[in-house]
Amino acid sequence: MLADDLVSPNGRYRLTHSPAGETLLHTPSQSTDEDRRVWSRKAGQPGASISLGPDGVLRAGTDSTVLQRWSGHYLLDPMAFAVSAVIVRDEGDIVVLREDGTEILNSGTAPEEARIVKSERDYALRKAAEAAKPVRPYGSGMATDWFNLLDLCAPCTITWVERIDERDALLRLGAGSSTIRERTYAEVESPAYSESGEPVTGALAVAVGGWVMVIEPSGFEGVERARAMSERTQTITYHQGFDGERIFAWYRDRKPVAVYQEDDSDLLDSGAPASEGHAPGAMVPFMRQIGLSVYRPGVGDFLPPPVEIACLIAGIAPQPEHFAGEHLGAVFSTF
Length: 335
Description:
By secondary structure, the chain is α+β, with helices and mostly antiparallel strands. Helix content is 23%, strand content 29%.
């Protein structure tokens, strides 16, 4: 019976039974080149094909428990049902029928399939819309040479703090005063180990204009402490985690102005107001200034949008020379 595939009338769904003993409903995916698994069940020993006998019993080889395994009801008596047909419907349901056309089994996969199909269709439309966007004009962004020099890899954090000095910025970051000394960027760039053998990460505080930029090449203290660091001033922090998740936040005197959490990527990438903060749209004018959501993302030599937006809010233009030589830096335990 399943020596040949069963296909829905619209050709979208295909039911197969593999030599490994797995019955599988699958469909082409709109987002990848591989078929997407919709439903599967183990039935019979490897190598056994599924057949429908004249007695109306579905079997995998001589094993008559196919209907039990497909339904998940292992106390069901397969002899109590006379199967006349197995069909695959256009909506993605597998249906086992009696001779009178009533259903013995319905996989119930259609509602979830409708949701997935809509999601894939929406994704394809968004992808096409992104591909149709123009490329941001060359030279329309801030200089990137300083950022390229830092060569940041996730996890990393940059925190901008206004109207304080470098030592105060590091103390607010949680650095012990005994760990603060003049360091080069190379000394804080790579994780090291403390005298006790515990891993540590470093931070460098660099004055740029009326702000201090605290760079953590492999740390996250800034994203944890930015709100407290903003007492009697303001801070902006950008964090990228191991899995590419991003947090982008602006605080004034411990109050959140606008905060994009790690699950707000769609809001951040589209230039929409933040999900949190007393002025969630505060960053939107700066997002519009760089054409966020207007231009095709990730094309050209431009700063990551949150970094460029933070510099625009601060009114600063970092240069490579700002990060040359020694600056106050500190180390932190990662535990």
